[in-house]
Specification:
about 230 residues, alpha/beta, seven-stranded mixed β-sheet, 2 domains, globular
Length: about 230
């Protein structure tokens, strides 16, 4: 790896890895760290170019972030873990689980999408417009270049075929908010495409883990119980 990922750890026991969303950092999970660390060793990462993790020279793609995760786990000699991802973090978790299923005991996907059109049009249009504007400005402004890379993740990625999810045999929980920015039909497609997965729709929006943690945390902890 050309970089070292920043992370925080709380608790002891079986590893539970948390992956935040686009433009965020590990502090997104501030309402999960305490409760989850009572049962697990919770490891919350800053993905490449987010939080305190450097951008590095490698491609700024979700696939690269999944490779970064593998190298991070290998460096800590973690061969098996629970994996919880939110938004782009869920997309990274899904890509990782598809490529390296032997690492994942249980998988939680919160607000995932398989392709950009899984996002509601009212949300996606401003993102695409900002992406197009920064396409020009980024040539002259380093900060604009970084912002463009973040928007590029949401505009052009991921590219996961629903049929490919049938390969997953990992116990999976799919979680979304009732007013999520991900289309309800898309969330249900993900759950339907993963054999045996559980689907839970909670009161709230895309940021249900932050804004309705009182409902989110018990659902996750119940799913993770042996």
């Amino acid at each position: 790896m050309d970089i070292q990922l920043s992370y925080t750890v709380a608790g002891q026991g079986f590893p539970l890895v948390l992956l935040h969303g686009n433009g965020e950092d590990y502090t997104y999970f501030k309402y999960q760290m305490g409760p989850f660390s009572e049962r697990y060793q919770v490891i919350a990462l800053d993905t490449r170019g987010h939080g305190q993790s450097p951008r590095g020279a490698a491609p700024f793609t979700l696939e690269q972030f999944a490779e970064d995760l593998k190298e991070f786990l290998d460096s800590r000699e973690i061969s098996r873990c629970h994996l919880l991802g939110f938004s782009d973090g869920a997309n990274i978790a899904l890509l990782f689980a598809l490529k390296y299923p032997e690492y994942v005991e249980k998988l939680i996907l919160n607000g995932a999408d398989l392709y950009p059109s899984g996002v509601k049009l009212s949300i996606q249009i401003p993102i695409v417009l900002g992406w197009g504007l920064l396409q020009i400005i980024r040539r002259f402004d380093k900060k604009a270049r970084l912002k463009w890379e973040l928007l590029d993740l949401m505009t052009t990625q991921p590219h996961i075929k629903p049929a490919g999810l049938s390969a997953l045999t990992i116990p999976t929980l799919v979680v979304a908010g009732e007013r999520d920015m991900i289309r309800d039909s898309h969330t249900r497609l993900i759950a339907k495409s993963i054999s045996g997965s559980q689907l839970v729709i909670l009161p709230g929006d895309h940021f249900v883990a932050r804004r309705n943690w009182q409902a989110f945390n018990p659902v996750v902890l119940k799913f993770l119980q042996p």
